[in-house]
Write a structure and sequence with these properties.
2 copies of one chain form a homodimer. Chain A is mostly helical. Chain A has a domain at 5-86 and 128-137: Winged helix-like DNA-binding domain superfamily/Winged helix DNA-binding domain (Arc Repressor Mutant, subunit A). In chain A, 56% of the residues lie in helices and 4% in strands. Chain A is built from 7 helices and 2 strands; from the N terminus they run αααββαααα. In chain A, strands 1-2 form a two-stranded antiparallel ribbon. In chain A, a hairpin with a 5-residue loop joins strand 1 and strand 2 (65-67). In chain A, helix 1 crosses helix 2. Chains A and B meet through helix 1, helix 6 and helix 7 of A and helix 1, helix 6 and helix 7 of B. The first copy, chain A, binds a DNA duplex through residues 4-6, 28-30, 39-42, 44-45, 47-48, 51, 58-66.
DNA sequence: AGTAAATCGGATCTATTAATCCGATTTAAT
DNA sequence: ATTAAATCGGATTAATAGATCCGATTTACT
């Protein structure tokens, strides 16, 4: 249920790229790493993953960089970025670490936890890039510190 | 929001110890590790932590082992075991990894996530050992597999 | 064509978590 | 007293996640 550091950086990077894609064409790795306060080389690795998964697109050479399509900004859900980086591990993860925890063979907190997990998943499935960058653009939320 | 492996093992061990404390006096490390399907040496380390924190008590020598008081079984909350092993890190942890994420300076998903976090915390604060071992004793839930 | 600015991609290093090892200590039973 | 069964505690090892390095590739600009 906790995201990996790679995924945290990946989401923040995606948001910054989306924001810049609306304003100017693209964002460079250097700018991205700076604006999300993440190590440049590590960010590069994560962005490569997102490019391969089709979440963002990249252009090499001078004036190159990363961008996100208008369609993606409007339609892409938070859960899709998470899946692209961390996979779907956390969806079936039992709080107490049981391999087969389910309705049939539940752990002692399965029932209490399932509602929370459902709400969390629902939130990730409905939150779009667009939703997230609105609060950024309005200066309400931020991506570093 | 995800527990460490040590904490997962620690909670499962606590539940087994509580269960055995009601039936027979104590449980040995060997039995505990077997019943919760966790490595013995690692479990030993975790139990030592729980003893030092006063969550469980131990007796050395033959016929020794670990036990939990009736009072603890009735009153101890899930969150207290988590704090004893993982600390309170996850309470103030931002989903996107921001160091200072708060109402004043929120990340782009702070508002959506805060409700989920609140519910989760509330659950951990009200769930007692007693609550958890009832479902175990009734054969509804389990501690391994 | 040449150069410099960018991403790409594989290998490597580092830090943290997970797990093990083993000798020291305690104590019940013979 | 001796032995054996248990926990204790410090040191070490293994596995994974986090991060870096550096040469290869692409491409805009002169």
């Amino acid at each position: 249920m906790t995201l990996s550091k790679a995924c945290e950086h990946g989401i923040r990077a995606s948001l910054y790229i989306a924001q810049q894609s609306v304003l100017i064409e693209r964002a460079s790795l250097k700018d991205i790493a700076l604006e999300i306060d993440a190590p440049e080389a590590f960010t590069a690795k994560i962005l490569q993953q997102l490019v391969r998964q089709g979440i963002i697109s990249s252009i090499q050479g001078p004036k190159g960089g990363f961008s996100m399509s208008k369609k993606a900004i409007k339609e892409l859900k938070l859960i899709q970025i998470i899946h692209a980086i961390d996979g779907d591990t956390f969806e079936n993860k039992c709080v107490l670490g049981l391999k087969l925890c389910s309705e049939i063979s539940p752990c002692p907190v399965h029932d209490q936890f399932k509602h929370i997990k459902k709400d969390y998943l629902k939130m990730l499935q409905k939150t779009t890039i667009h939703t997230m960058i609105s609060s950024l653009n309005e200066g309400i939320s931020c991506l570093k510190l």
